[in-house]
Design brief:
Blueprint lengths: L6 H6 L7 E4 L3 E5 L7 E7 L6 H7 L1 H18 L6 E4 L15 E5 L14
Antiparallel strand pairs: 1-2, 2-3, 3-5, 4-5
Helix pairs in contact: 2-3
């Protein structure tokens, strides 16, 4: 596992500081350090899976937990009614650069189409 791959594990272990907006036994949610929208939160399972396909095959309940946590954060951030986007990047061609699955929660402004290029991470 490279340093980049272990980034989230190091955040979970509190070796690297992060702006934590939610945490429970299974999931941590942190603000993205390079936000692509006014609200940009990463929802990360504490157990490492390479990508969302691996997570879905191994633990569909944990996948559902990521989505439920993202929705709860959207409600707390005041963007649930106006709308938000949930995004998983899966593997390199989709822009995944950290190979520990994480869900991007984006909102707080009209997001438009997906033609603006990939959201890295």
């Amino acid at each position: 596992m490279s340093d980049m791959d272990s980034l989230f594990l190091r955040i979970i272990a509190r070796e690297i500081p992060a702006d934590v907006v939610h945490e429970n036994d299974q999931v941590i949610a942190i603000r993205d350090i390079n936000p692509q929208a006014p609200t940009h939160v990463l929802v990360v399972p504490k157990k490492r899976y390479r990508n969302v396909a691996e997570l879905a095959a191994a633990d569909p309940g944990l996948l559902a937990e990521l989505i439920a946590v993202a929705h709860n954060i959207a409600e707390r951030e005041g963007i649930a009614d106006s709308g938000y986007r949930l995004l998983f990047n899966t593997n390199s061609d989709a822009g995944q650069t950290i190979f520990h699955v994480h869900l991007h929660l984006l909102g707080g402004e009209p997001l438009g189409g997906l033609t603006g290029g990939p959201i890295r991470g």
